[in-house]
């Protein structure tokens, strides 16, 4: 499971300048040697359908929530550290529960 947000300037703008391509945290995995599935990060009151997370690589778009600058205006990293949210914990707990 890989969350990403176009608001992540650390892996978008800065990684793009250093490596010539945006990082996973900005745009998802891009090309990979295995099939990928893409979906949206859900709110804490929503349930992930089993077929949504049952893939080898899942790109989870969190644009709607990981927007950055929440604590520090004009942060150079943008949304890079914006994952400390109940919705992130909900995703992780869902994965843990389904791994049993």
Q: How would you describe this structure to a colleague?
A:
It is built from four helices and three strands, in the order βααβαβα. The mean pLDDT is 81. The protein has a three-stranded parallel beta sheet with strand order 1-3-2. It has helices at residues 10-19, 24-27, 50-53, 86-98, and strands at residues 2-4, 36-40, 57-61. It has 100 residues and is an alpha/beta fold. It has one domain. Helix content is 31%, strand content 13%. It is flat.
Shape: flat
The tally of structural domains comes to 1
**In what order do the strands lie side by side in the largest sheet?**
1-3-2
Oligomer: single chain
User: Would you identify the regions where 5 or more consecutive residues have pLDDT less than 50?
Assistant: none
The helix fraction, in percent, is 25-40%
Q: Structural class of the helices, strands and pairings?
A: alpha/beta
- Rg, alpha carbons: 14 Å
- Largest sheet report: 3 strands, parallel
Number of helices: 4
Q: Strand percentage, roughly?
A: 5-15%
| Strand count | 3
Give structural attributes:
3 strands; alpha/beta; three-stranded parallel sheet; 100 residues
Kindly summarize this structure in a few lines.
It contains 4 helices and 3 strands, in the order βααβαβα.
Secondary structure layout plus pairing:
Elements: E1 2-4, H1 10-19, H2 24-27, E2 36-40, H3 50-53, E3 57-61, H4 86-98
Parallel strand pairs: 1-3, 2-3
